[in-house]
Structure formats: C-alpha cells, structure tokens
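User: Teach me something about this protein's shape.
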Amino acid sequence: MRQTEQALCYWPRTGAPEAAAARRALAAMKVRVRPAGPEDTGRTIGALFAGKGEEPAPPGEPVPDPILVLSGFTSARLQALLLALQRQGVPRGVFKAVLTPDNAGWTLHQLWRELSREREAIAKGQRESHDAPAT
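Assistant: First, the predicted structure itself:
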C-alpha cells in the first residue's frame, strides 16, 4: 500500500511569499499539507503530522526559519517536488527534511537546530576546501 505524501510546512511569519510558492508547488503535486506556525514549536514533528488526538503543547523555543518536513515520498517524487519548489521560487535556503523515526520525536526547534548545524558544517567544509593550498 502506498503511503500518503505529506508535507509539514512551518512558516515563522504569516503571509511569507515563500509559503505561497511552496503551497502552489505542493498543490500541483497533490501533496497533503500540514501547516504549522510559531504556536506549534513545542509539539513534536510526529504529533504535528498526526494532527489530532494530542493535547496542545505550549509554544517552544522560537524557530526563525521556514522548514518543510516531507513524508511518504519515493525518491523520484521527492526529486520532482524539489524541482517544483525551485520552479515556484521557493528559496534554496528554506530548510527541508524527511520525516524519520528519530526526528519524529523532536520539536520544530530541535529539528531546526540540527538542520542549522548541518548547514554550517557543509559551509565550513566548502570554505576549507576552497581555502586549502594546492598540493
């Protein structure tokens, strides 16, 4: 049985143009959208995907950047979605992740912190490889 494709869409600001662009791309691909905002930062990723049956949690630590968490995608559909997001003008800087058993128990802030660390490590590695003297 095919798993339903879903996208958890966290936007720290309402009315952000990248949010509308992402919604257009997701709608065109018929992906189920789970919206999330600053009031949801204290809930786990898994609870936000479940969407019901859990008591609301108090807001957690602020998450300053937009995040898309994707679930149920095949590799081909994931690549198609990334291309659709780019074509709709969603900035490359928007954090993207795939739902895993590990991150399902994290809050949005914990996920954002981990994605930020990964991005910094990649940028540092790229800077170091450019700065390294030729041998």
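Now, about its shape. The helical segments are 17-28, 45-50, 75-87, 108-131. The mean pLDDT is 89. If you'd like, I can walk through any region in more detail.
User: That's plenty for now, thanks!
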